[in-house]
Here is the input.
Amino acid sequence: MRFLTVTPNPSVDHTVELDTLTRGEVHRATAGSVEAGGKGVNVARVLARHGHEATAVLPSGGVDGDRLETLLAPQRVRAATVAIAGSIRTNTTIVERDGTTTKLNEPGPELGPQDLDALQRSVSDELQRAPDWFVSSGSLPPGAPADLHARFVRTARGLGVRCAVDTSGAALAAAVDAGPDVLKPNEDELAELLGRELHTVGDVVAAAGELRSRGVGEVLVSLGGAGALLVGAQGTVWAGGRSLVPLSTVGAGDCTLAGFLHATGSPAQRLATAVAWGRAAVLLPGSSVPAAPETSAAAAAVRTLDDPHPDTLVKDLQR
Ligand SMILES: Nc1ncnc2c1ncn2[C@@H]1O[C@H](COP(=O)(O)OP(=O)(O)O)[C@@H](O)[C@H]1O
Ligand SMILES: O=P(O)(O)OC[C@H]1O[C@](O)(COP(=O)(O)O)[C@@H](O)[C@@H]1O
Here is the structure.
């Protein structure tokens, strides 16, 4: 299949591994790594590793822009870079020995009107090539309008291209009303969007139902160690597996969405693939994305459940 992604706020992902993080202390890291990052970039990377044609549209500028392009070059992703005046960001992740992951995401460069025009032109040009899926992902940098993902989705839908969105905050709220085919919030992002806490399966299903009534096709809610729930026209499915000690959870959500779009079959089959790709990602260090042998191995441990009981607590789903 052919995929197009856009990442308005890509990053160089710097991961530092250490024993235990203590605020205010000097730490000696046990390992460190640097990778090309940002949500749409990661979606493109993992799809390319699974043999798909993946194009990633991204702004690039400054020393970190050069670094990101260098890191992306060997990864079989076709990078459609848009030169911007500012320098792209570095995001830092601290992973402790027990798998606890702390992310420090920079705001990113200010995008001026010319940068935004160039980015929108690049997305429109790439959409003319009629990809099978378009993925609009990640936070928005300063200067970008909150409805940037929504604008991309409307352009894609106008051209008949199926689209998925993974973002947060005001950008997520704006994207809902553009009616993407797939929306992938995590539990916290969904709770923030609806302005209420989500404790049970019923809470999540009701929240997802509200988004569907506003025009979203399928809502794929990732739940960290508790797997994921898919709410769509055919009902609700859960998929997950036994608990894992993550090496790094960075990129797990991106791999989950990529697996979902890669898969075919019933909602349960597509969700099981999504969860397998997410679980394979957490077993890799830093922002590394899994290859086919790793996602196939992870798939063997995933189980699914149709219509999980609405009173079940989300945190109890994997038991
Ligand atoms: N601690 C964990 N144990 C097992 N699987 C995990 C863990 N954290 C994440 N995953 C897998 O990765 C997926 C995405 O993780 P999640 O944290 O929900 O996404 P995001 O990175 O978007 O916040 C989950 O649905 C799950 O399959
Ligand atoms: O755009 P945001 O929300 O700041 O997120 C960017 C960060 O998220 C990642 O794309 C990882 O995302 P997930 O862990 O949600 O899959 C990193 O590569 C990047 O540093």
Remarks:
- The chain has a mean pLDDT of 96.
